[in-house]
Please model this.
Amino acid sequence: MVPLNWYLLLSAAVFSIGVFGFLTRRNIIIMFMSIELMLNAVNISLVAFSHYLQDLRGQILVFFIITVAAAEASIGLAIIIALFRNKNTVHVDEMHEMKG
Amino acid sequence: MQLMMPNLQPVMPEITMTVLALLVLVADLVIKRKETIGLLSIITAAIVAYFLTTAKGTAFNGMFLSDGYSIFFKLIFLMNLILTVLISVKYLSVERVNFGEYYSLILFSTLGMMVMASAGDLIVLYLGLELMALSTYILAGFLRYDMKSNEAALKYFLLGAFASAFLLYGTALVYGMTGTTDLKEIAGYIALNGLAQNPMLILAMIFVAVAFSFKIAAVPFHMWAPDAYEGAPTSITAYMSVGPKAAGFAVIGRVFLVAFGGMKVEWSAVLIPIAILTMGLGNIVAISQTNIKRMLAYSSIAHAGYALLGIIAGTPDGLASVMVYMLVYAFMNIGAFAVIIMLRSGDFKGDSLSDYEGLAKTHPLAAGLMLVFMFSLTGIPPTAGFMGKFYLFMSAIQAGYTWVVLIAVIFSAISAYFYLRVVMLMYMKEPKETVALSSSPAIGLALAVALVGVLAIGVVPSFFVNFAKAAVAGF
Model:
């Protein structure tokens, strides 16, 4: 059996890649993908904990996270499309209507 | 196997709200006058408030707690909802975005806040938070053809989603360490196994603190707030500077004082620097703003810092003062935004500070109201802002954090500069041009409610404070 620690390390690695991607990439779609990566890292550790503890709560939370992430994706993409229609770019550095 | 019907009495307000919000969404298809939809959503809020009176108890095995604490917060959310709808009715037609889904989105967002305030479990907390946040992202970008509004929604969305990933990672770690997501059981497990100094659990606590700091716009996680507040429709700026912030404090109170109650030393070491930075940056950066919405955004950041003092105190009195402060803040902030909304008409934006020059000459009543709200935001007696701050600082001093309160008082004095500058511009400058106010009976009612709220809490604070203390008693 694969020990719990391996899953946790995988989850921490994927989460860190997500955080790094969010902070360094400037394309909104890629930043958005990084957020999804972070959420899936959480899912990995929740399922691993849930299996290790022999308790179903973690898996229930995973289902909720998947559902909410889908809703979040649709709203996020809708916002990006509305922005793209006005601005013709998905580069976050060009979003500078407001300053101060 | 026998199927048991759970006791739904405590969840009735939320169920009613869900059903009525869906009905409002459907009613939008048949009703052409969108003002009627606004009226329907106010009626919804009143019905939900009625159900709140009989809703005490717990449901779903302690996952949903309807105690005095949550009911007090729910009343703040409903008040916020009603005031926001009242100031929106005219504003939406001025901005030419008079669509019915606006009102159902506000209802769903408020529903999310109500679920958050009642959450006895991290899963419920997450679901409430997402319902609130997702609806608010859409509302922030409601002016679809305005680039600023798009940008506000995008920034709010990206950082909000980033924050909820942190909340979830913290939740996952807590679940792994304690084997449960129930707030009371987490506290019990930590106390039983002496896990308070466990590095993994401290990491989890920091992740959760980061996520909540994003929600209440505390420094250094405030970057989204000024842009989101400036770009969003003004009525939504008023709404999201009060609602999500109060909901954030409701869950901070529960998670930090209940679930992490045994880790007070650890989390106050995280929250005290956050509170000091929040008050400092909010008040100092607000001085250099030229846009009043942006200035109030920084002021809103600063007020989150003051309110954190009550959480840091960690006593029932501290919690009660946070609750009263959120109520006070709802009245004074929405009042100030209502005046800003009145100045918006036709092609005149009315959100620059220079637009307020000489307002007292052209519109003395609007200027007088703005004066009261600005005095209250500064914290000058006999307004509610003073009493709210007084009780917060009192509770923090009693808990032994005198030095933090000293810093807070200094920053509070600095804040007088930019609030009173608005008053100075209104009363001591000559008007450049005469603008027509876009007033309506609804916005007048909202201003009257806000004014009465600010003065009543300022003059008889003990009534509200005792109410909050009684609410906290069952915490």
